[in-house]
Amino acid sequence: MTLSDFLRVLRRSWLLVLTATFAVGAAAAATALITPPTYHAAAQVYVSVQTSTPDVNDLAQGSNAAQQKVNSYVRVVRSASVLQPVIDDLHLDTTVTELADVVTAKADVDSVLLDIGVDDGDPKQAARIAAGVTKSFTAVVTGLLEKPTAGGPSLVRIETVQPPIVPEAPSSPNLPKYVALGLAFGLALGIAAALVRQTLDSKVRTRDDVERVTSVPVLGAIGFDASATTNPLVVQSDPRNPRAEAFRSLRTNVQFVELDQQRRSFTITSALPSEGKSTTAANLAITMAESGARVVLVDADLRRPRVAEIMGVEGSVGLSDLLIGHAELDDVTLPWGRGGLSVLPAGQIPPNPSELLGGVAMHALVEQLTAEYDVVIFDAPPLLPVTDAAILSRVTGGGMVISSAGKATQKQLAAALDALDSVGGRALGIIMTMVRTKDSGAYTTYYAQEPDTGVDTATSRGRRLADRAATRT
């Protein structure tokens, strides 16, 4: 995963990361607030080994011996010999084991200083216990462990250099530290969850996801617009809208497909319902008509037709009536707008859509339409639920598959493309729809660059085709 991929994952899952960070941080803060405070009192003692002579070598040996003994004394501090007298003297309601859990002892390497600490909920009690442990430790070492067998004073001398004082502030919980650790852990947890989510997410969201499935080019990307259901024809209603410009870019790239054919027909379909195929077909037809081409938009979705509703025309009579011989082409084809766009609605919903779309009458209709129009666009049903679009793609020049960002999985897109291939159809390109703004950088339209000049071949050749179509009209 590259840095750009990692940043894209974070942008996509920023809410998850933010929620995890603040949730764990808040939990850490709450834990710190409800945890009873603990106070730490500490004492420091100096350990030395006395020598009989002031010789330098003897002094050095005594210092080394003291350092070695200090390391052993760390464990002696928490022993029963030291702690039981403290319990008896201070009348503590505890056991040696329980008291040992709150007593600490440590010594730095090559040091003769020993730190003795005690943690308790009462600051004064912590100081009293620390003083008692220090006193008892000194007595046990000098009067028992290091007492000469021949009698006399111990050669080990222990002096308190820092007596315990009553702490003014609790040592724990440390609220800032708790919150900082909680936020850091929450951030790490959120990032990990985002990466796991990305790994497990098999939906098609970016161009990279499409390229993992197929080598079919991505012809364009249409941004997400919450008002698309109420305002589907954005090219007509708001020509300056970024989505309208995206449809014009799509038109340019579609014109680049099958450049050897002056008259073209293609099927627009999708893997699943509600991926925006009808809206895309309608806007693409309008933009192509704006370029001067004669275009007919055919609603070949004989199961859930939507073109008549989107285009605002009467759809009670149309393609189905034409295919069964109850109407003529001129009777059911409706001119739309001021350009060269015509609309052929679906008409009545028949009981056998697949048979009608794959019959002889449909072949003859496609030939007639391609003879009369420069571009013929068929809006067909989704590929996975039914076979209509796959059959129709074989009759026409091929299929353009709509893939809504975050709708179909990579497996479903692959299955849709396989459905086209299984009947001898051809996928001309993938059109991404409902692309979120944050992911727009992940999509680039399909261009072919001239190696010598760097000219945008798709745009220049598309414009020449549009000019020739305008000349023919």
What's a concise summary of this model?
The protein has 473 residues and is of the alpha/beta class. It has 19 helices and twelve strands.
Structural account:
By secondary structure, the chain is of the alpha/beta class. Helix content is 48%, strand content 16%. The two termini are 52 Å apart. The relative contact order is 0.12. Residues 55-59 and 440-473 have low confidence and may be disordered.
Please state how the strands of the largest beta sheet are arranged side by side. 5-12-11-6-10-7-9-8
Main sheet specs: 8 strands, mixed
* Large-scale geometry: rod-shaped
- Report low-confidence residues grouped into runs of 5 or more: 55-59, 440-473
Residue share in helix? 40-55%
- Tell me what portion of residues adopts beta-strand conformation: 15-25%
| Overall number of strands | 12
Number of helices: 19
User: Which structural category fits the helices and strands?
Assistant: alpha/beta
The residue-averaged pLDDT reads 84
Radius of gyration from CA coordinates: 41 Å
Between the first and last Cα atoms, what is the distance in angstroms?
52 Å
Task: Pick out its properties.
19 helices, alpha/beta, 12 strands, 473 residues
Helix-strand layout with pairing:
Elements: H1 3-12, H2 14-34, E1 39-49, H3 56-76, H4 80-90, H5 96-102, E2 103-106, E3 113-120, H6 123-145, E4 156-162, H7 175-200, H8 207-213, E5 218-223, H9 234-237, H10 242-256, E6 264-270, H11 277-290, E7 295-299, H12 307-311, H13 319-323, H14 329-332, E8 334-336, E9 341-344, H15 353-357, H16 360-372, E10 375-379, H17 388-395, E11 399-404, H18 410-422, E12 427-435, H19 457-472
Parallel strand pairs: 5-12, 6-10, 6-11, 7-9, 7-10, 11-12
Antiparallel strand pairs: 1-3, 1-4, 2-3, 8-9
